[in-house]
Amino acid sequence: MDLPQPPQDTELRNIIDKLAQFVARNGPEFEQMTKNKQKAEQTQLKQDMMQSSQPPQQNSWIAPTPNNNSLNSDIEQLNQQIETLQEQIKQSEQNLQAQHAVLLQQQQVQMETIIFEKESAELRNDAEECTVALDELDQILQPIIDSCTKDSIQAGKSWILQHVTNKNQAFVIARYLLQKAMEPGASFPRRLHVIYLVNDVLHHCARKSATDLKNALESVAVAMFCGAASCASDDQRLKLDKLLQLWESKANYLAPATVDALRKPQESLQQYVTQQINKYGGEFARVTQATFEGYRVQHQAFVCHATQQIHDMEQRRTALEEQQQQQIQQQQQQQQLQQQLQQQQQQQQIQQQQQITPPQTQPQISQPPPQIPPPINPSVPPPQFTQPPPGFFPPPGIFPDFSKPPPGFPVVQEAAVPEELMPTVPYYELPAGLMVPLIKLEDTAFKSLDPSLIRLPPPAPPSERLLAAVEAFYAPPSHERPRDSEGWEKLGLYEYYKAKNAAKKEKEEQINAGIREKSRSPSPIHMVVEKSPSPPKRRYTSRSPTPPRRSRSRSPKRRRSKSSRSKRTRSRSPKSRSPSPLISTPVAIAPLPIQEQLDPSNKGHQMLKRMGWGGSGLGAHEQGIDAPISGGDVRDRQDQFKGVGCSLNDPYENFRKNKGAAFITRMKARAEERAQESM
After folding, report:
1. Which DSSP string corresponds to 421-473?
2. Helix, strand, or coil here: 308?
3. Phi/psi of residue 559, each to 5°?
4. CB–CB of 244/258 below 8 Å?
5. Where would I find the H helices in 479-592?
6. Is the pTM here over 0.90, yes or no?
């Protein structure tokens, strides 16, 4: 595919090059703007040429310039660009604030490390000046930090009392203990063990009146105690509370001001951290401020650039708005000129009519009154106003559209009737909530619903009530909305049952007053309750000459299970049977199961008869079972030798078995542990 060649005309080529540079510098939207302007100019030029070629009587309408739409679109684009730049400026300000917050967090984390390092360096220098062996003290403190036994506490206290000979040494050792307790990342047990050592030394100072050492330890006790409280759990805080109660009871341990500070751990710790930052954090704050200033300079540069773009766009928008106003004024002037031309034409027509009409001295009946001007052309017959104008009725065979109002009348908007949406799937695949409109408030007894009455709700956006209900459903339980043990909201259906009871009461009152008839409720369904009372004593003799029928295709086990099932079906009490309804149509009745009993041909029956059995239940008093035993069931090893009819689901026996099995399991586990220890 060959590329199009540039035009031969030099002037046209220069115009195209300038337009391309203008579009590349200002964006593609200005290309569309230029095209719209050129198209409008060409259209205006054509209209001017057409108007100049027409006679002066037909120049009664001047076309307005169609540049309003393009100008409106350009102004909207500029407004969108201005809003985008303003939004970017807001985002840049938010990013600057977020960077400042991140720097402060980093400063807080790094500040602790820097303060700890500088404090350690100063402490080393002071220890060298006071001849305090911090390495030896560290070795003494390590067993206290690890295990905190009574011997390790005693050893640490002895070392401190031996090496403290003046005030400076006491403060150096107290600061080192504070550093061990406030080290970044130190656990609560480590801090607590150091506090226990300080407590023992304070007890010795109060008893021996060692003022210098007591003052030194009191200066670090608040920070040490509050630092441990900041990382303690609820159970660990009990230990600190117990220690604080001890210090409060001993008036000679700490000063009252120190005890008051210990009662406010958060405020005291914040005060200590502020002092440390003011003392050591000046250099780090300068570095952080320099980084933040770099971010601020970038933000200000972007804001200046965006502001300049917004200013340029506002100027262009102002120019376009002025151009739009000029076009509107031109359109108004054209409309005024059009009205003037129309008035002139009307005046000319009236003058022509007056010139054509001859003067009349006497009124004639055949002529119209003087108030109504005669037609322009007398040869044309006057219009017949008794008939409808042409085009009023449609062509033959097509009725007019009477659904719309006549011309000049407003269109009547009919009220929107909600459509009833029929479901396209079976009712059992629809949501259960669609059944709710079919159930009336006054319905209290069961009444089957008609699936054909189920309708889908019309499509509509979710209402505020529905959204609030969904939020309340997924909201966690609160004091205003408590839940029961199963997770349902308490009194959630209170309003429903309140309205239900009111409707039920109103219905009963109307029935009692005779306003409405009592609805026919369906006959209750009586559930057949199976009971298995002890069967009466029956004696089976071998008097019947015809033995019962036998099925050779059935095994004895099936016969026995069949007889047991038939026995259970015969054990229903006649009181619990529901009355049989009248059958008006023939119903196929299933054959009754054949009742199988022990007959004289059974070997077991014969043996029992020889032993004196009367034909009823087993046992001396015939109190046992009288039906054949069903197939053997799988029993536990301990229950396999129990007799027939013995209950295997005795709760006391099951409890004894479980306890015995648990005891045996524990004994086996203990024996295995002893065997492993002996190995």
Report:
1. BPPSS-GGGS-GGGGGGGS-TT--S-----GGG--BPPP-PPPHHHHHHHHHH
2. helix
3. -60, -40
4. no
5. 494-513, 556-570
6. no
